[in-house]
Design a protein that fits this description.
585 residues; alpha/beta; Aspartate Aminotransferase, domain 2; Aspartate Aminotransferase, domain 1; Penicillin binding protein transpeptidase fold; seven-stranded mixed beta sheet; three-stranded mixed beta sheet; 22 helices
Length: 585
């Protein structure tokens, strides 16, 4: 059996981001040798595009290191830091700390400027640091992935140059998504990655060395990251390592996509979707870790309420929605709004058709829905007490000055006659034994009809969804409530057997004013136990589920009788698995 994934993942974590389809197609091109003439032309094109995307000054050397963003970090440090180097490293999170450790490994005397995680560096703090502790190089992170903080690199670089220091900048989470102008800002060396804002796969690390950095390079301890040897390969066609042509195709196509959209338009898109997300989060009572003015557009660190599990990886619509927990001392969840994710994809029928917003809004609602979900696991062994729907009916009765009524007799699954199970499934969910909680084809059909009407009317709900709504939610047509219903339904299917789901459903659904469950309904309307119901009586009960407070099994209307007869004719179509096994024997 192949271990290759067969379903898409909606990648909303800190990286990798969604790979653009055109980039995926580019990687299917035939493999080239690392010294093929066409490969050399591709490398020249990639160098020119990287120079423009970085905004590098004339005389710079822009290229890509084979490896992830950390390989770009090491290539920059290995060629600018040596035994006698005095390095000041601005640490505003996990990757600032990694940069400090990298400089130490290459022999630098490192002075850390530690900033509270979740806050950007104050330029005056760097000025004071350099006045008291001179440095040869100042290293800093533009977009701190671990905390969602944006550092004021232009001001920090200017202060570093005032004190005669080189500047080294980590732009792993900003290149292609935030304004970055390496030449104009006086950045001497900068590195990034391909799997975030550029919309490519991981595996290459774009790097640029400006003219001043090229002059100040040190003897490199590393063979693999030696800038002189890498220049020989990229510029003079000398063998250094076997670079992947497939990853070069991906970077070539990703950079072409960036330039076709335009950097300013791309930045504006990320900013716009970031603001939309922040506004949506605010309406849900959720906030970001960094304060206004210090926040990334490309990565949003959402504060998770205390006592809530922050593992946000759950299946929906057969897809994997991936987020990640933050690394800062304050608990937060990180969400990407990068290249392919910072758009308006069809995440699923319900999100795409009902919410119709940006992916950021969809994620905000999904995050809130997830954070407030109930734990369904107790239903494996314990019957629910008063359900959310029962409590709603009780509130309605009290509002009218009436005493709430609740007639319910719980019985086990095996005591429900097979013809009642069949009748209910025919009436409510004839694919119950086949689907996994949500019938997406039926749901999409229902939503398309609602879309055409301009409002939500049909539910398209399975029995599992109805149970989720009955036990935990409300009958509201609110899109967020519907989203929570979908997720709870999938959880119910993951945790409970089908027979258990149907057992609970048949015991809690409303069958008239204050009458809950099939046993109570059988005793009320037919004065007998449910196990003694005839097929005709079972079909009559199933016929009124659609609106039990209006339709009556005791005094069936012509509409109810017609529905009963239709159910009777179709009851042989839906056969529970245990019956099917008996028939086969």
């Amino acid at each position: 059996m192949s271990l290759l994934p067969d379903t898409d993942r909606i990648l909303l974590g800190p990286g990798p981001s969604l790979t653009a389809p055109r980039v995926m197609r580019a990687m299917a091109a035939p493999t080239l040798s690392h010294l093929d003439p066409l490969m050399m032309r591709l490398l020249d094109d990639v160098r020119a595009r990287l120079t423009r995307v970085f905004g590098a000054a004339d005389g710079s050397f822009a290229f890509a290191v084979s490896g992830t963003g950390t390989s770009g970090m090491e290539a920059a440090v290995a060629n600018l830091v040596g035994e006698t180097t005095r390095a000041t490293v601005v640490v505003t999170g996990y990757f600032g700390d990694r940069l400090a450790q990298m400089c130490e490994r290459y022999g630098a005397t490192v002075t850390r400027l530690d900033v509270e995680w979740g806050r950007a560096c104050d330029p005056d703090a760097l000025r004071r640091q350099l006045q008291s502790m001179p440095a040869d190089i100042v290293a800093m992170v533009h977009a701190e992935t671990s905390t969602g903080v944006l550092n004021p690199i232009e001001q920090l670089a200017a202060i570093a140059h005032e004190h005669g220091a080189l500047t080294l900048v980590d732009a792993v989470t900003s290149l292609g998504g935030h304004p970055l102008d390496v030449g104009a800002w006086g950045i001497d060396a900068c590195y990034s990655c391909t799997q975030k804002c550029l919309g490519g796969p991981s595996g290459l690390a774009p790097v640029v060395f400006g003219p001043h950095a090229l002059e100040k390079r040190v003897k490199c301890r590393s063979f693999y990251f030696d800038l002189a040897l890498l220049e020989d390969y990229w510029l003079r066609r000398k063998y250094h390592h076997t670079m992947s042509s497939t990853l070069v195709y991906a970077l070539y196509e990703a950079l072409a996509s960036v330039e076709e959209e335009g950097l300013e338009a791309r930045w504006a898109r990320h900013a716009r979707n970031h603001r939309t997300l922040v506004d949506a989060l605010a309406t849900l009572g959720l906030t970001l870790l960094p304060r206004e003015g210090e926040r990334l557009w490309t990565l949003n660190a959402v504060r998770v309420p205390g006592g809530v599990d922050d593992d946000l990886a759950r299946r929906l619509d057969g897809r994997e929605l991936i987020s990640a927990s933050g690394r800062s001392p304050a608990r937060c969840a990180r969400e990407r709004a990068r290249r392919a994710a910072s758009c308006r994809p069809r995440v699923s029928a319900i999100i795409g058709r009902t919410l119709t917003g940006t992916a950021a809004v969809g994620f905000a609602l999904l995050t809130y829905a997830y954070l407030t979900l109930p734990d369904v696991r107790p239903l494996k062994t314990s019957n629910p007490g008063a359900t959310a729907f029962m409590e709603l009916r009780a509130r309605e009765a009290r509002a009218k000055g009436q005493k709430p009524r609740r007639v319910q007799v719980w019985i086990g699954y095996r005591y429900f006659p097979d013809h009642l199970k069949r009748a209910v499934l025919v009436a409510e969910d004839d694919l119950f034994w086949q689907h996994e909680g949500v019938d997406f084809e039926q749901l999409q059909e229902s939503l398309e009809k609602d879309w055409a009407r301009g409002r939500l009317l049909r539910g398209g709900s399975t029995i599992t969804q109805q149970l989720a709504k009955n036990v935990y939610l409300s009958p509201s047509k609110n899109p967020l409530r519907k989203l929570r219903e979908l997720i709870i339904a999938r959880r119910l299917e993951a945790e409970l057997k089908k027979s258990r789901i149907l057992e609970i459903y048949l015991n809690v659904i409303e069958w008239g004013d204050g009458i809950y469950g099939a046993e109570a309904a059988a005793q009320t309307y037919f004065h007998k136990r449910v196990v003694d119901l005839s097929p005709s009586e079972s079909a009559l009960l199933a016929a009124v589920i659609i609106n039990p407070r209006v339709l009556s099994a005791a005094h069936p209307s012509p509409r109810v009788v017609r529905r009963q007869q239709l159910i009777l004719r179709r009851m042989g179509v839906v056969v529970p698995p245990e019956e099917s096994a008996q028939l086969e024997r």
